[in-house]
Amino acid sequence: MSMQHCELCPRRCAVDRAAGERGVCGAPAELRVARAALHFWEEPPISGDDGSGTIFFAHCPLRCAYCQNADIALGEQGRPVSVERLAAIMGQLQEAGALNINCVTPTHYAPLIREAVGRARETGMALPVLWNTSGYETVEAIHANRGFVDGYLTDFKYADGGLAAEYSRAPCYPEVALAALEAMVEVAGEPRYDEYRGQERLVGGVVVRHLLLPGALENSKAVVKLLHERFGSAVRLSLMNQYTPVISRFAAEGSARAVRALERSPQLAQTVPEAEYEELLDYADDLGVADYFWQEGGACEESFIPTFDFTGVEEK
Questions:
Q1: What is the pLDDT of residues 100-115, one digit of tens each?
Q2: How far apart are CA 288 and CA 42, in angstroms?
Q3: Do residues 135 and 181 lie in contact, with contact meaning Cβ atoms separated by under 8 Å?
Q4: Which residue of 66, 93, 185, 259 has the smallest Cβ count within 10 Å?
Q5: Are 292 and 237 spatial neighbours (Cβ–Cβ below 8 Å)?
C-alpha cells in the first residue's frame, strides 16, 4: 500500500498523493491531525473515568452528507505532523492518563499511523490501540493492521445501499463494510477487557456502532438484524441516538455543500424522535441481542462534538 498509487480505502482512487494529487478523501501524503486529547464520550470501557486518548485525523474517504465532524472530514481543520511527532503524541496521551490510543478516521493515513505506533511502542507506549473507523475499509487494509491495532471501534452505517448512495456516495457500502467487519473479527477476535486503574477497559475485539438517522428506522433494524445473525457475541453493538443536525448550521453559514445536501435530503435537518430510538432498542431486545451499548437522552447536542482547535497537536 503506497501513497504513490493510493488504494488505501475502497474508493481506490489510485492517485499519486506523494506528487500532490488528491483523491475523494482530499488528503495529502503527509499526516494531518486536528486534535489529540483525552475524550470522555466514547463507550464506557473505552473512555472509562480517565478518558480515551483520541487522535482526530483530518480528511475522510466517506464524507457523509450529515457528518458531525465535517470541519475535519473536509480537511478544513488539520495541521501537518511527522510520524515522529505522532509517535510522541501517543506517548504524551499515555502520560496524561489515557486508557488507550484511539485513532479517529485513520484509514487514509494507515501506513504512517502503523509506523508511528511501532515507534511509540519502542519508546514505552503500552496502551491498546483502537481503530475508530467509518467501516468503509478494505479487507487487505485490515489485515495490514495486524500487530499494530488491538481493537476496532467501527461504524456500520447502512444495510440499505440506496441510503448509502444518497448520503455517502457509496452504494457498495453494505457489502464493503460487511467484508471489512468479518476481517476485523478475524484479526482482533471477540471483545476482551481488563481492569486498569480500577476501570473496565476494552483491550481487543470489535465494537460496532450504528447511528439511527432521521427517517431511517428500517435501515437501522436491518443493520441490527444483519449483525446479530452474522456475528452474535463476536462483536458488541453500540446503538446510538446522537444524530445532531449540524448540517443546518453549516447551510445557514453559507456552505454550498450543506445547502445542496439539504435540498436532496431535507430530513437531515431533523432530529430523531425518542420513540423511534426506543423502538430500535426494543427490536434489538426482541431479536435476542444480549449485551449492547445504548444512549440516554441528551446525546444529540453539539456540546458532545469536540472543538477541533489543534489541542495536543503541536509541540509546546
A1: 999 999 999 999 999 9
A2: 24
A3: yes
A4: 259
A5: yes
Helix (H/G/I), strand (E/B), else coil: 88: helix
pTM across the whole model: 0.95
CA atoms within 13 A on the CB side of 193: 15
Per DSSP, the three-state class of 289 is: coil
Q: What's the pLDDT at 38?
A: 98
Q: How far apart are CA 239 and CA 167, in angstroms?
A: 19
Of 144, 108, 151, 123, residue with least CA distance to 12: 108
Q: Are 39 and 16 in contact (CB under 8 A)?
A: no
235, 107, 41, 292 alpha-carbon torsion, rounded to 10° = -10
**% of the chain exceeding 70 in pLDDT:** 96
Distances from the Cα of 107 to the Cα of 110, 160, 204, 265, 284, angstroms: 5, 23, 19, 27, 30
With a cut of 80, say whether residue 88 has pLDDT above it: yes
pLDDT of 259 > 60? The answer is: yes
Interstrand relation of 199-211 and 151-155 (parallel, antiparallel or unpaired): parallel
The count of residues in the chain is 316
Q: Is 45 in contact with 93 (CB distance < 8 Å)?
A: no
Cβ distance 18 to 4 under 8 Å?
A: yes
Beta bridge partners of 206: 152
Position 211, amino acid: L
CA–CA separation, 274 and 277 (whole Å): 5
Q: Smallest Cα–Cα separation from 9: which of 75, 153, 150, 106?
A: 106
pLDDT in tens, 166-210: 999 999 999 999 999 999 999 999 999 999 999 999 999 999 999
